[in-house]
């Protein structure tokens, strides 16, 4: 079994946004078939189910459904609910796999999705939840479904995110549900969209993940906007629906509601425009939240929540677990290394979930999960993905008995003043919703996508930890805050960073705790506030430091627009949750191997010693310690037989400006991505100053890169943008070499102007300066002259030459052959993924096959050369005439010119890189 998250096709004008939402809100717990549907014994019944009108409504709803029947019946049933933005087709192959495992599987398109009619009510009790109960009724009436009693099928319900909420709401209102598996879903929808971590509930001492459940939260505007966008109606989305929704309604909301019900649309409009919720909206969202029914759930529940999830964090699973457990339900909790922001559950977890369903519905096998399990991410594997180990605790702390152990760490730092800027702009960056886990697999990437801004953050740092600290849950801390001047609305964002000995900061899970402060006294008296930080699982290694950052802005949230200033300090240490656990036991018959254990251990020890020695020799080549770049046999192949890079080899020395040339699709960008550690080669090696490059390799800190464009904050000056970027790396200020980078970039006094006033050329030069921060030994630039006019290109040329003149090395990938010819000292030409020519610019250019003649009568010379048999492509360029001799001796061509009365001052090879390039790769390449 494989859990996969899918959604429907993009809709109309929302194609781009819908694709993002497909990842984040269209997630749904589904099972992926590994077999061939053509040979499967599973039968599928397609159709529509008519739903009676809800109380007080004359509208009838038609739901499109698919019923998957296994080879043998009667069998237990599973109801699969899709994620927001999806439909029944999102789970087709997954339902088939469950059916092949012996379950009757019912999938369907919820109201407002796919070809189902009706409006989206966000799992309303009298709408979507009632629809699910009707489907259970229909399953109970079938002879191929196992019954526990008249009208009572043996059935489990599962789904993720939106579908996970449906699972909980159905189980809390329909006593026929026998088991449920909600994945990455929420407990309280209001708190999911407007969290407030400004106070810690009474459960804080017992639970590992106390929630951000205080009233008056901060609107999670980015996620909320995605949700709303997927509910908009369009011609494309309504085209195949049984009853297309009218563009206009008989309400004051007009067409802004899209496919949402009027009540939901009014609530969204209120939150989006005010950032707050009225009592009416709070009451509505309460009825749509699993928290309204968790006290009634008494059946076995497997709660699977993601550790990479800035939409619905670990605190929501924590609340669901405590509430269901208090009601008498048998609850097991799994935190896995994924979520709305991260990767999908791995194959091992997916298979265990199937085993859990068999155990609960068929009483076969054994329970594959303990009371509480969580994943711990380690280093990066050779494939470029994090290594993960799963550990198991005896119980989920605070659910039945006991409490979470918390370790306290002193944080150093004086009282600091932070500023909330007018309009809340520019805003700090804590990550990119839906992409955080995918982009932040390495410390370099993680630091790139989290950035606090100067003047807007206060930081407090612990001494280095003396042993690994495995944080599992939500840390807590007490802030002391006072207003400087008018108090303002009082919103802060609190984060816990992992700071390594090199000064690089990583924000685990891109997790942020928004705090809506209580009213602050106008006289500047301080107020103390307890904060529950966002839940994480993170091993803080020996020598690392814990750093609390308190910021005034975050682009993921709706921040106040009125300017304000605050004094911030800590009123105590940070308490970090620790849940002792052991690795999940192996399924191998270990006892049978006990007799040879000692021998294997000895062999393993010898192998480890040998491997360490080999790895040391392999990872660092002492003969190349002073060589900027050596690529040998580099290959990158993709599934489907596509090979982007095929056995690429070349070398770059100090002081060189090397131009990497090739037509589109030659493999240039793929090569640069492998060089920067963003993707892993299929074969071959890349060495930078002798060290083998891999994702997260320390030697990557010696590379500065600029790929096509750089995002700058328009309201900051050029120098402020550079300082902000450098601060995000966590490295000391004195290592930035800001003045040197600016001098090389040649921006002059313009560095003190706001970037929004810059021309394209100035932005490009600022981007180059950003890549030069820290004066990296190897500068890698992909198409740096894009969008520049000739004077700007000339200035760019000088920038690169000056940088190489410092003894460093520049690698430039470009389509502008003439520019490379004037800038680079060396050239590598790539075609079809491998090197077809390499050498100095003069060496490559002189291989173009053309000759040049400096003459006194260019037009007469051209006519004379045209008459020479074998000569072609005669071209006049000022006082020069160029021609391809095609084997004709140069002396014969000169003799023909003299005979025609032309005086020849110089004759020789035409050294033009463009000619050589076209000859090497062919005229038709693009």
Automatic annotation (TrEMBL):
The chain crosses the membrane at residues 590-612. Pfam families: ABC_tran (PF00005), Abhydrolase_1 (PF00561), PepX_C (PF08530). PROSITE patterns: ABC_TRANSPORTER_1, ABC_TRANSPORTER_2. It comes from the Bacteria. The keyword Hydrolase does not apply. Residues 383-404 are annotated as: Disordered. The keyword Manganese does not apply. Keywords: ATP-binding, Membrane, Nucleotide-binding, Transmembrane, Transmembrane helix, Transport. Gene3D superfamilies: alpha/beta hydrolase, Galactose-binding domain-like, P-loop containing nucleotide triphosphate hydrolases. Residues 629-857 form the ABC transporter domain. GO terms for molecular function: ATP binding; ATP hydrolysis activity; dipeptidyl-peptidase activity. Belongs to the ABC transporter superfamily. This is ABC-2 type transport system ATP-binding protein.
